C-alpha cells in the first residue's frame, strides 16, 4: 500500500530480452522510471503503474487466476499470492512463465523479476505520504498522519 518510485534497476535489458520484448518497446521501457501505486479496497488489490510512456492498471483478488495484458501487450494468465511478507505474481503464456516478487525491506520495495535464467532486480522508494490538516468541531487543530500502511494516527498539533 502506498506510492513507490523506481530508483534502481539491474539487468532489466536481460530480463525483457529473455521474455521476448521487441527492440522499440525494450528501449522505451529501459528509459522510464515508473511510479507504482498499490491500493487495497476490501478483497480487491489494485496496482497502477504510471510512466511517461504508458499507464496501466490491474485489479485482482489474492489467489484468484485472472487474465492480464502486460505492459508490452502480451496476453497472460496471472495469479498473485501472499507468501509470508511477499506478494508473488506468476504470469503464464505460450508455455512460458515469469515470476515477480514484491517485498518491503527497510522501507524499500524490492522487486526481483525472473524469467528462465534471467533475473532483474528493481528497487523502489516510497514517496512521502501527505499530511492533512483539518479542524474538529471544538476548533482544536489536528493532523492526520498516515504513518503505516494500515494505521492512521490522530495527534493534536501541539504534540508534533
From TrEMBL:
<dbReference type="Pfam" id="PF00061">
    <property type="entry name" value="Lipocalin"/>
</dbReference>
<comment type="similarity">
    <text>Belongs to the calycin superfamily. Fatty-acid binding protein (FABP) family.</text>
</comment>
<dbReference type="InterPro" id="IPR012674">
    <property type="entry name" value="Calycin"/>
</dbReference>
<keyword id="KW-0963">Cytoplasm</keyword>
<dbReference type="GO" id="GO:0005737">
    <property type="term" value="C:cytoplasm"/>
</dbReference>
<dbReference type="GO" id="GO:0008289">
    <property type="term" value="F:lipid binding"/>
</dbReference>
<protein>
    <recommendedName>
        <fullName>Cytosolic fatty-acid binding proteins domain-containing protein</fullName>
    </recommendedName>
</protein>
<dbReference type="InterPro" id="IPR000566">
    <property type="entry name" value="Lipocln_cytosolic_FA-bd_dom"/>
</dbReference>
<dbReference type="InterPro" id="IPR031259">
    <property type="entry name" value="ILBP"/>
</dbReference>
<dbReference type="InterPro" id="IPR000463">
    <property type="entry name" value="Fatty_acid-bd"/>
</dbReference>
<feature type="domain" description="Cytosolic fatty-acid binding proteins">
    <location>
        <begin position="2"/>
        <end position="19"/>
    </location>
</feature>
<keyword id="KW-0813">Transport</keyword>
Amino acid at each position: 500500500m502506498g506510492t513507490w518510485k523506481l530508483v534502481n534497476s539491474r539487468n532489466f535489458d536481460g530480463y525483457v530480452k529473455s521474455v521476448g520484448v521487441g527492440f522499440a518497446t525494450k528501449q522505451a521501457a529501459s528509459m522510464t522510471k515508473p511510479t507504482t501505486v498499490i491500493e487495497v479496497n476490501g478483497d480487491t488489490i489494485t496496482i497502477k503503474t504510471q510512466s511517461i510512456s504508458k499507464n496501466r492498471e490491474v485489479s485482482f483478488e489474492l489467489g484468484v487466476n485472472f487474465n492480464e495484458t502486460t505492459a508490452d501487450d502480451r496476453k497472460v494468465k496471472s495469479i498473485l499470492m501472499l507468501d509470508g511478507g511477499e506478494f508473488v505474481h506468476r504470469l503464464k503464456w505460450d508455455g512460458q512463465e515469469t515470476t515477480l516478487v514484491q517485498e518491503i525491506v527497510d522501507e524499500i520495495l524490492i522487486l526481483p523479476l525472473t524469467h528462465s535464467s534471467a533475473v532483474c532486480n528493481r528497487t523502489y522508494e516510497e514517496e512521502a505520504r501527505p499530511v492533512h490538516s483539518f479542524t474538529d468541531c471544538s476548533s482544536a487543530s489536528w493532523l492526520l498522519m498516515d504513518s503505516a500502511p494500515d494505521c492512521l494516527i490522530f495527534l493534536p498539533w501541539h504534540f508534533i
